Amino acid sequence: MSHPSKNTTSSIQPETTRRDFMVLAGSALAGVGAASVAWPFVSSMNPAADVLALSSIEVDLAPIQPGQTIKVKWRGVPVFIRHRTPDNIKEARNVPLSDLPDPQADEDRVQKGHEQWLIMVGVCTHLGCIPLSGAGDYGGAEHGGWFCPCHGSHYDTAGRIRKGPAPKNLVVPQYAFLSDNRVKIG
Ligand code: FES
Known about the structure:
Blueprint: E1 5-6, H1 18-30, H2 34-43, H3 49-55, E2 57-60, E3 69-74, E4 77-83, H4 86-93, E5 117-121, E6 132-133, E7 146-148, E8 153-155, E9 161-163, E10 175-179, E11 182-185
Antiparallel strand pairs: 1-2, 2-11, 3-4, 4-5, 6-7, 7-8, 8-9, 10-11
Helix pairs in contact: 1-2
This protein binds FE2/S2 (inorganic) cluster.
FE2/S2 (inorganic) cluster binds at residues 124, 126-129, 148, 150-153, 164-166.
């Protein structure tokens, strides 16, 4: 199980007091020294460091073995990270788009050069339950799909809805690889 580490990027904390702010804002309104007050004004609107830390997480992928899925928490929701096997990828890419309720190519759900990593928000697109990894008609160790037990939605090895009431594929969040084994989500 990998433990995400919080993004350590910190914001510049506003040092201005309320009085300073009012004076600065007043100056801006008066059109005096507009350029010099712009930074304190913007700085005072920056989110606090703890809010920034919650907005993105970094995950070490090295311990996740092929065929394994982990769950991390990001912005209060679960995110699935699956290390897909070559067979998983092949299976996902062999599915005709016409078979999919929410047609989307596997290539569009992963990043080029990192096709083995499938990263998705672990929230069913029907009514928001958390699907079970490796379960359902497209689950099992060899497929690695997901099953939502609330009302029976089956997702395939690319996290695409295949059967059941869920209208959409599991959502792929914004993420970026910092290296081959490190990803930043958010
Ligand atoms: S919430 Fe997942 S099938 Fe209804």
